[in-house]
Write a structure and sequence with these properties.
Layout lengths: L2 H20 L1 H36 L6 H25 L5 H8 L2 H12 L2 E3 L1 H20 L7 H27 L1 H22 L10 H29 L1 H5 L5 H13 L5 H18 L3 E3 L3 H4 L1
Antiparallel strand pairs: 1-2
Helix pairs in contact: 1-9, 1-11, 2-3, 2-8, 2-9, 2-11, 3-7, 3-8, 4-11, 5-7, 6-12, 7-8, 7-9, 8-9
Length: 300
């Protein structure tokens, strides 16, 4: 596949992943009301582990090496443990639109860790575009009156930081063992540790949760926790970690759109204006040149 076509396809897969991720906070907001933080935050991984175990067994995938296992731990800490648990806790008290604004800082976190872990070096144009996008969402947050931070805000910011590391590490590792294999092994490695805490938090009342809550939980387990990562890591492997991460600027506004559809949250004209600015920064940033320094292992 030609490089240009490969990069475009990578951006398309990244967009698909972002659309799937954009439903995560709305689904979490619905599910956590009936199942609680632990079941939603960790239980989704237990369910996803059953799916990935079957896939890994059928395909007879090779076990990761010790070095790859260490990288998978970093992926698991962010994508499988930290982000689901912290966002589940935060969504108990924050509206989706609030969380969406703070999650908008994820591309900068991802690009920053990409420089460290994958040796990608974005150009000045890339960083200017990133700053413009970040400033846009900060202005949006101030306009909505999110000036005072709560503990839930700090939880979301911490989730963004550790997920940025997870994204960067997963994108780098996907070039070695495959995109879906990264999140699959990460899920399978940590899921056994989640069984006991999830089991202790299960109650009989959960069986009477409405269909909307069950659909949301299943979506979180199957799509948000696994299938969306397959598309996302594939996109980063093909299009470049820092460049594809720019698409994440669309995520908060897609979240707000889905929140309006499923949770009856309103969309203002100001939101649309900010969305246009952010989209412009994405278009500009994805076309910015990005250099990559090969590691010694890659050269050999």
């Amino acid at each position: 596949m030609k490089r240009e076509i490969r990069e475009r396809f990578g951006l398309l897969l990244g967009l698909l992943g972002v659309i799937c991720f954009s439903l995560t906070l709305p689904a979490t907001s619905i599910a956590v009301k009936y199942f609680g933080t632990t079941v939603v935050g960790l239980g989704r991984t237990v369910v996803a582990a059953i799916l990935v175990a079957v896939v890994l067994f059928v395909r007879k995938e090779e076990l990761p090496s010790l070095r790859q296992f260490k990288s998978l731990i970093l992926v698991a800490v962010g994508a499988v443990l930290g982000f689901p648990l912290l966002t589940s806790w935060a969504m108990e008290s924050l509206p989706v639109s609030h969380g969406a604004v703070e999650v908008a800082l994820l591309p900068l976190s991802t690009a920053g860790f990409a420089m460290i872990r994958a040796r990608e070096f974005p150009s000045l144009k890339f960083w200017i575009s990133s700053v413009i996008g970040s400033l846009a969402v900060i202005i949006y947050a101030l306009h909505l009156g999110f000036g005072s931070l709560k503990f839930a805000d700090f939880a979301l910011l911490l989730a963004v930081i550790i997920l940025g590391l997870s994204y960067a590490e997963g994108g780098r590792l996907s070039k070695e063992i495959g995109s879906w294999q990264v999140i699959a092994w990460a899920i399978l490695i940590v899921a056994p540790f989640f069984i006991i805490p999830v089991g202790l938090n299960l109650t009989s009342e959960m069986l009477h949760a409405p269909l909307q809550a069950w659909v949301s939980f299943v979506y979180l387990a199957v799509v948000s926790q696994f299938l969306a990562y397959v598309a996302w890591y594939s996109g980063m492997a093909m299009g470049g970690i820092a460049r594809v991460s720019q698409i994440q600027y669309l995520q908060p506004f897609l979240m707000i759109l889905f929140a309006a559809v499923f949770l009856d949250e309103s969309i203002t004209i100001f939101t649309i204006i900010i969305a246009v600015i952010v989209v412009f920064s994405v278009i500009s940033g994805k076309n910015a040149p990005i250099s990559k320094k090969e590691s010694v292992s890659e050269k050999n």
